[in-house]
Amino acid sequence: MCGIIGFIGNDALAKILDGLELLEYRGYDSAGLAVRKEDETDTQIYKCQGRVSDLRKIIPNSDASFSCGIGHTRWATHGGVSDVNAHPHKSGKVTIVHNGIIENYALLKEEYELSDKLVSETDTEVVAALLNKFYDGNPKEAIKRTVKKLQGTFALVIMFDDIPNTIFAVRNVNPIVVAHGEGHAILASDPAAIYEYSKEYFVLDENVILTLEPSAYTVEDFDGNQVPVEFTKVDWDVTSTGKQGYPFYMAKEIDEQPSCIRRILSNYLINNDIDFGFNGELDKALKKYNRICIVACGTALHAGMVGAQLFKKWCGITAEVEMASEFIYSDTVLDENTLFIAVSQSGETIDTLEALNRAKEAGALCLAILNVRGSSMSRVADMSLYTDAGPEIAVASTKAYTTQLLMFYMIALKAGFLKGKISEDYLESAIKNLKQIPNAMAKVIEKKDDIHRLSKEVITCPDLFMVGRGLDYLVLMEGALKLKEISYIHSEAYAAGELKHGPIALISEGTPVIAAVTQTNLISKAISNVKEIKARGANVVLLAKNELKEDFSDEYHVIGLPDLEDVYMAFPEIVALQIYSYFVSADKGLDVDKPRNLAKVVTVE
Ligand code: F6R
Fold first, then answer.
1. What does DSSP say about strands 338-344 and 291-296: parallel, antiparallel, or unpaired?
2. CA dist., res. 344 & res. 477, Å (int)
3. Which pLDDT score, from 0 to 100, does residue 191 have?
């Protein structure tokens, strides 16, 4: 949550504004920046409630002579959404932006009698005031003293009025990435803002102080020792960023999925085998472990649920799946016999990170399935598998989900083979099936206009239900999340067999329902359930394989899906649901990429 940026170099004002736009998916209720010119002590602050586009409007001119600045996009935690609560916050000579939560801010305010110095309701301004109180010309000393007093999570980016062209940063949990180039230096809360400047960056360690200058940087621990940094290379095509003619990032990211899946397959499928690298270490673990615990949030959790189903199917073992926010307060037993799998696009979600830390402490072997290299989770996990889907900018996850799914398919297949539960022939034919997935997804994308026609019918509906059995049910859970988060239509997925135990009471004349019937062994049961809801007036759209489309089209609106073997139908099915949700949101005139109240990276519990 919250995007933060610092930039030193030519035309800092424009660069910060552009960077804030790229970070806006982290929080978008307010935006602000502070800029200064070389050798001038005057710091100019602009901030307001609203988007970066609103911030641009209040900046009087595009003065290119600013050489240093910091910026922020906010997702409000302490203090409502208002101009005054927007960052940066200034106290005396200190200007800061902050991502995270300072839990003891009220105590600090009282202890150091800061109240009369504060104008906002934020925890951040308390930190600014404390820093200013401790500042006597030695910035690192003031930062050290302040940080020692703070409880909570933070990434703090700081400028001092009397230290020109220099930005300081320090963090605990919340990330900061740093890149340095010819005549410029940049830091940000995630790499999205720095791809344009550099193909490599480093992640700032926790509890060290970064001093960033135009032609140098230093990283020191609190005892003044230099700390080495490790650069991470960006290995996706940085030119693929930007909307590239699409009205929204989500539309672009949906369309990118076949090529993302192809890329992963070509990385991991080698000589008719699934090769994860790690010198065979992961293979050994997959063979050995019979207890698997998958932890994630939101869409990543839904990918994990499919993963658990696959471990049952191909390995004959029961994997536990838990939401990270519940897991960290539950009594789940973890030990050295557990393979713990954390799933996260960003690698920064605080609950998942916390769960991963717990698992590591308990001695479990920790595998992370991540998209962003160098993210916090990659630094904790014993092994990380990267989905390399490229930057996912739309808040609603699409390509991250399908690439996470694919990882689970490959892991479960390989584990099943290594455990002797599936044969070499089966693995070979499974690999052939995996290779058909990208084309199947592309075929759904080609049919997006047909899906759009059906989605138009629900744009004024308050509720929509999704029903299915087995794998369909799990995929519909993700479909329902997509629809609710970007269209604000209340949508829920139900296991079709459970309907009669309560949820069917919600069905009345005209209630829209999407029913998925892609699993051959469950079709007759699933169709009976669909008939039951149709008999109660539901307006049903059916997701079915193309080979069955004709059988159903007299009775239902049918979205035909390419005919893959049942277990692989999750891929075309979710693409259809993503497209459906996308069009509902776009047709309602909503900001598809930035749904209300949400943020892309959830770094508060
Ligand atoms: C929904 C969505 C969220 C994320 C969740 C976890 O479309 O994107 O539910 O999946 O916040 O985020 P990561 O995967 O970054 O841990």
1. parallel
2. 17
3. 86
β-strand partners of 373? none
Could you write out the DSSP letters of every residue in 343-410?
EESSS--HHHHHHHHHHHHTT-EEEEEESSTT-HHHHHSSEEEE-------SSS-SHHHHHHHHHHHH
Question: How much is the mean pLDDT over the chain?
Answer: 94
Phi, psi of 519 (to 5 degrees): -100, 110
Cα(52)–Cα(23) distance, integer angstroms: 10
Both structure tokens of 188: 């940000």
Choosing from 328, 348, 397, 593 the residue with most ligand 1 atoms within 8 A of its CB, the one to mutate for a pocket test is: 397
Residue 600 near residue 25, CB atoms below 8 Å: yes
Q: Which residues pair with 35 in a beta bridge?
A: 44, 69
Tell whether pTM > 0.70.
Answer: yes
pLDDT at 19 exceeding the cut of 70 = yes
Q: What was the pLDDT predicted at 238? A: 53
Query: For 202-244, what is each residue's pLDDT tens digit?
Result: 999 999 999 999 888 999 999 999 999 999 887 655 556 678 8
Residues classed as catalytic:
2, 600
* CB proximity list for 308: less than 8 A, separation 6 or greater: 292, 294, 318, 319, 320, 321
Taking the CB of residue 293, how many other CB atoms lie within 10 A of it?
24
For residue 483, report the distance from its CA to the centre of ligand 1, in Å.
14
User: Ligand 1, from 401, 582, 602: best to mutate by most atoms within 8 Å of Cβ?
Assistant: 602
Question: Measured on CA atoms in the order 115, 116, 118, 124, is the torsion positive or negative?
Answer: negative
Q: How large is the C-alpha radius of gyration of the chain? A: 25
**Cα–Cα nearest to 306, from 412, 202, 388:** 412
Q: How far apart are the first and last CA of the chain?
A: 11
Q: What is the pLDDT of residue 239?
A: 54
Token pair of 212 as six digits: 């960033």
Task: Determine the distance separating the centroid of ligand 1 and the alpha carbon of 582, expressed in angstroms.
Answer: 17
> Which residue ranges have their beta carbon within 6 Å of ligand 1?
297-300, 344-346, 349, 352, 396-397, 481, 485, 602
Residue 500 CA to ligand 1 centre (angstroms): 31
C-alpha 397 to ligand 1 mean position (Å):
6
Mean pLDDT to the nearest integer, 155-161: 97
The yes-or-no verdict on residue 1 having pLDDT over 90 is no
The whole-number pLDDT of residue 331 equals 87
Residue 405 in contact with residue 434, Cβ under 8 Å?
A: no
Quick: pLDDT tens for 164-212: 999 999 999 999 999 998 889 999 998 888 888 888 999 999 999 999 9
Q: What is the pLDDT of residues 311-352, one digit of tens each?
A: 999 999 999 999 999 998 898 888 899 999 999 999 999 999
Position in ligand 1 atom list of the atom nearest CA 602: 11
Place of tokens 């789940």: 332
Question: Is pLDDT larger for residue 234 or for residue 103?
Answer: 103
Nearest CA to ligand 1 atom 8: 397
